[in-house]
Amino acid sequence: MEAAENNVQLKKQHNGLKFYQYVLRAFLIAVGVVFEAIALEAFLVPNKIIDGGVVGISIMMGHIFSLPIGIFLVIINLPFFIIGYKQMGKTFTITSACAVILLAFLTTVFSPIHRFTNDLLLAAVFGGIIMGIGVGLVIRNGGSSDGTEILAVLFNQKTPFSVGEVVLFLNIFILGSAGFVFGWNYAMYSLIAYFVAFKMIDITSEGLESSKAVWIISDLHEEIGDALNDRLGRGVTYLNGEGAYTGNDKNVIFTVISRLEEAKVKNIVDSIDKHAFLAISDIHDVKGGRFKKEASTKSDAGCLSRFI
């Protein structure tokens, strides 16, 4: 199910876009690829630090055969995009293939750049940051510069493992292989770079301010809803529910808050109804509706909220 939803999302991501939106996305993908190339040639490759996925394999292959990593980026990546053409869609495949070719070209162009630092820790941290920003920009705009995810989707359809589990297994194998190629000291720094890049990918592709969805079930739903509106400047939606065991009608409060408002919401609910059912979950994207915050009637409302 997860893989199918991912495939549909990738296929539809470019649909319905105007020409200037295509151009903007292509430009941002190119900018992301430039970031990736700088991270590789100025921080990671000169210090024998690898990233996960095909990039990591290419770095090791380039070291073993004394060839530019761009050659292996193309050779290893393109078959994955060809195989995944039907799964990911024409636009995504072409966009990603162009990103890979551009990355291969730029790593060759930037290869003469002198390393920015000889300190392995600094190289791992800042190389991971720049790499994560680049990959995040590419993903956010509907492309990919690494065929590992496509391979993971295909494995997901044939095995009981999720896409995330397959990617994790592949990257553990790749990062572990760096220990045999470069030495275990470099493999450990590569692990640092990988986790830094992983976090930066999330921040770049989904944003710094994480939102949370809130569901509250209480007989005092109107009082709680009014309090959320007054104290947080937050709009709420009342949903009709029914208890499966009792068959009694239930009123469910739904709203979206920022991460910084979570503790305040809990305090508001607890002060009105200590027996209320409260569920809070992370959400990656919110759009539509009245998304800006209204002015609160209380001084403690803060200014980081979103309004539905």
UniProtKB/TrEMBL annotation:
A cellular component annotation (GO) from this entry: plasma membrane
Coiled coil: none
Bilayer disposition of the protein: Multi-pass membrane protein
Recorded superkingdom: Bacteria
Domain DUF2179, chain residue ranges per copy: 234-288
Segments passing through the bilayer: 22-44, 64-85, 92-114, 120-139, 160-180
Subcellular location as annotated: Cell membrane
Record-linked InterPro entries: DUF2179 (IPR019264), N-reg_PII/ATP_PRibTrfase_C (IPR015867), UPF0750_membrane (IPR051461), YitT (IPR003740)
Keywords, in A-Z order: Cell membrane, Membrane, Transmembrane, Transmembrane helix
CDD domains found in the cross-reference section: YitT_C
Protein name: Uncharacterized membrane protein Bsu2508
Origin species: Sporolactobacillus inulinus
